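Lab meeting tomorrow. Look over both lines:
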Amino acid sequence: MGLPGERRRRAWRAMVIVWVLLVTVAAALTLWMRDSADPGGPYVWLDAEPGETYDLPPCPTPQGGGPASCAYVRSP
């Protein structure tokens, strides 16, 4: 059985090793989850000039004269 305190030291050492492993795994999971929560990049502005206008058809107006909303899509 060895020395009287040897078993206690071995158990203490095993608990410390398990604790260090758990902390390391938790830190790695935290960093991985934080990075995966961010949306993918790159974040850039579209190339557009403020004064640039496109030849768009006029927005149709409803027969009742109420407000109208138009959405235009430009494909390359």
Remarks:
- The mean pLDDT is 78.
